[in-house]
């Protein structure tokens, strides 16, 4: 069932128990923070005001309400430049309260994974992300289809169990 897609912050604000996010791409296009990192600018993690964004606050607010937020990334190795930057930037996700794990794509054989990135909220609402070949975001869709929810939840849990916690994953 196709539903209109409210902003992520609204979806997370309505989440009571859990939100899981699966990322499958090695490149998500460019953005100003990536471009700064490519120029050699590094985040001063001791200067929270310089890197804390509304997204981080949205995550922190949900976590403070008791929502468990887990993110799993399936990545090719050796990793792309985008993933090197994302690995560095993940410290912000962790500081906001997310749990993050990494799974090398070579270890993702033997089980099925969705072809698209997604967020699953409380196990009953799926936000699927669609990207162009260059990594740019095209559109999102929402689904409450029980079979799709079950498949995505199952795939996420298999990946989560096999993945390496961020603090232990080195690139």
UniProtKB/TrEMBL annotation:
Residues 8-170 form the DUF6879 domain. InterPro entries: DUF6879 (IPR049244). This is DUF6879 domain-containing protein. The lineage of its organism: Bacteria, Bacillati, Actinomycetota, Actinomycetes, Kitasatosporales.
């Amino acid at each position: 069932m196709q539903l209109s897609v409210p902003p992520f912050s609204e979806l997370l604000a309505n989440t009571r128990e859990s939100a899981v996010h699966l990322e499958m791409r090695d490149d998500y296009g460019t953005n100003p923070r990536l471009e700064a990192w490519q120029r050699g600018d590094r985040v001063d993690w001791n200067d929270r005001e310089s890197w804390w964004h509304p997204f981080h606050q949205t995550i922190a607010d949900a976590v403070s309400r008791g929502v468990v937020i887990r993110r799993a990334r399936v990545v090719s190795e050796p990793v792309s430049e985008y993933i090197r930057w994302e690995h560095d930037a993940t410290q912000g996700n962790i500081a906001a309260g997310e749990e993050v794990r990494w799974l090398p794509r070579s270890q993702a054989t033997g089980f099925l994974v969705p072809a698209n990135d997604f967020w699953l909220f409380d196990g009953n609402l799926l936000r699927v992300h669609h990207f162009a070949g260059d990594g740019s975001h095209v559109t999102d869709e929402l689904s409450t289809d029980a079979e799709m929810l079950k498949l995505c939840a199952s795939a996420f849990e298999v990946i989560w169990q096999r993945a390496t916690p961020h603090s232990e994953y080195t690139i």
